[in-house]
Amino acid sequence: MIEANLDDQTGEGLGYVMAQLLDAGAFDVYFTPIQMKKNRPATKLSVLGDPQARESLTKIILVETSTVGVRYQTWQRTIMRRHFIEVQTTFGAVQLKVATYDDIEKKTPEYADCVRLAKQSQVPFMTVYQAALAAADQADKEC
Amino acid sequence: MIEANLDDQTGEGLGYVMAQLLDAGAFDVYFTPIQMKKNRPATKLSVLGDPQARESLTKIILVETSTVGVRYQTWQRTIMRRHFIEVQTTFGAVQLKVATYDDIEKKTPEYADCVRLAKQSQVPFMTVYQAALAAADQADKEC
Amino acid sequence: MIEANLDDQTGEGLGYVMAQLLDAGAFDVYFTPIQMKKNRPATKLSVLGDPQARESLTKIILVETSTVGVRYQTWQRTIMRRHFIEVQTTFGAVQLKVATYDDIEKKTPEYADCVRLAKQSQVPFMTVYQAALAAADQADKEC
Amino acid sequence: MIEANLDDQTGEGLGYVMAQLLDAGAFDVYFTPIQMKKNRPATKLSVLGDPQARESLTKIILVETSTVGVRYQTWQRTIMRRHFIEVQTTFGAVQLKVATYDDIEKKTPEYADCVRLAKQSQVPFMTVYQAALAAADQADKEC
Amino acid sequence: MIEANLDDQTGEGLGYVMAQLLDAGAFDVYFTPIQMKKNRPATKLSVLGDPQARESLTKIILVETSTVGVRYQTWQRTIMRRHFIEVQTTFGAVQLKVATYDDIEKKTPEYADCVRLAKQSQVPFMTVYQAALAAADQADKEC
Amino acid sequence: MIEANLDDQTGEGLGYVMAQLLDAGAFDVYFTPIQMKKNRPATKLSVLGDPQARESLTKIILVETSTVGVRYQTWQRTIMRRHFIEVQTTFGAVQLKVATYDDIEKKTPEYADCVRLAKQSQVPFMTVYQAALAAADQADKEC
């Protein structure tokens, strides 16, 4: 994880650097609101990425933000195995991500599919999302 | 209350505008972390002041920040009556703000006094703060 | 809505005042992290309640917190009509809140029911929650 | 301004509703992190829009989020007059928004232009941004 | 410390997982508001616990939240030694936690005792809290 | 990095401890709003400092705050090389920090200089800031 505290950066510029870091292969990028000295509201930038990408991700941060330094550290991760299934809903087909770990299994409808079908059928996002979960649940019972 | 959402302002510049607004007579100035469109972490600036100072406080915001507009609205206030008392502690004299409303009364040691005495006696800030509260409590009982 | 900015209150005391205000009939109570002058991280307390309860809620705030004043203001509300239905899941019966407004209808499983059944059946909270939604959806189709 | 406190909504769904509200003509949409009862981290949704759009924006919130009610209130606004100018930089032409109010005038380079030119010339976003400001400043002096 | 970024979890479900983790023996559990990609307000879950409990705490997070992975890392700790004393106040007996480290000693009234006595005597929470601190201070002087 | 979660500390006391830690040589001190158990809004204190200063910084935290323990961990840092240059603006001389790393170079006007000149010439802070950047840019081109 690479982190930098930014107190002389605009929110506009931060939206841009988030996009640059994700394009460059960061696993995840997120902002945390912090409060720095001299009454400065600031933003902590956190970047999760492959240790081998540390140098290239660091350079993007140094180039695109006002910080003169970053700090970094290695975290271990426990990650669930993932595969995808597809279910049929009354609004169309939706992909679900199936994550497993020991005896734990959970399914999450893909955001992009739900957005597309919600707009197409002019129904709320959550309606499509729930329909996908229900269809997946039904498919499980039929097995 | 005057408010503005700022997404192309640095934290550095925000610390400066807080000082300018307080110097100009604002009752209170505070920042709230918000999240705006296009993945922009931003800051909401809130200024409480006298309705008659609205125009002058607005101008400071427009001059010193990047916003092109502010919004404002009148709030009512319920304010406790306040007076000051002084108590003696082993570290020296401390002013307390006494606030009253109906049958409610509360006392708050003055921050600046506690800081000064804490540094002078090289004791923690909270030690002086508690000593002032205890002294005030003792004075009450002796009445 | 009643609001107060609190910079000399502990988090512990704030958890207590939230409970007191909810007991006294406030519709909702929430905290927002803010940043005040002199580098003080602070908390904004917001209380939504009946206009007739303003005086009593204000007194709780003045008694239980360190603030010497509150501000308040009337907001209008658009509220959906609500009734409750009960559905059967494999884990037991769950109440759902059904909210309607014009042609909008949505159902939300009751939190307390889901927690109770999740603990009883030793399944995840979300499993019960989804089962309740699916059962409600099924009931709709059968009508 | 329309507001709703959302404690049973996912971040994913909130990103979606922000897009829907902006598409429907809201002036601005932003999120504030809040803390609600029962240890629930939550998000306050705030929508600024034309008073005449209140009903339609409210319906989007009720349809797309889990809330059963919204609150609203009218704020006054002081808005600077705005027009656009174009300047030439070594990276290409950039539009700047010029905002004026009484004797106050400020210029802000358009975000989209800076992003496009930064990517095209493979330079940092801030380099283009600063170049646009410098060019505008130069143009002023030559007048 | 175990951490997970949650962007497709409701606040309601997060309140539940906090309770589950504390029941399972976590030292501390806290939430931080963060901002993730695609305009998603999200919550970072942080869990402090015994390294030997890592696997069991991780499983609770994977079962009860929507995340497909957690990250973790060992931190060192400097902890003050603690014991409890009891003091008499006009409202009843209050336990205080006494923490010591080298020549540092501090006393903190127990939250549960202060809440119980405050409700019983119908006085503000802070009144009991201060009375307990004053009583402890008095006891020190008499030694 | 040393961290402590503080839920029974006032914002006022936190402003004080930030000053104490910076005076004692901490590289950086910042606050993050967090949410702890029992509905307590709290503040995470983070202190970046030299590993050799860990013991002395820890003691300040234990003395001045209510926490009974801190956690700490070593992070690596990538820091840009820095030197200062001075440029002339129409408002006076401004120092700029020049930071370099490989082929990256960026310049940041010194906050204190900009504040001083802004007040002296009664112009906005950003006007001086931009003038300094433009002057530095001009100086580069003339080389």
Automatic annotation (TrEMBL), chains A, B, C, D, E, F:
Keyword match Lyase: yes
Protein's UniProt keywords contain Lyase: yes
Annotated signal peptide: none
GO molecular function: lyase activity
The enzyme's E.C. designation: 4.99.1.12
Keywords for the protein's UniProt record, in alphabetical order: Lyase, Nickel
Pfam families attached to this UniProt entry: Ni_insertion (PF01969)
Name this protein carries in UniProt: Nickel insertion protein
Lineage: Bacteria, Bacillati, Bacillota, Bacilli, Lactobacillales
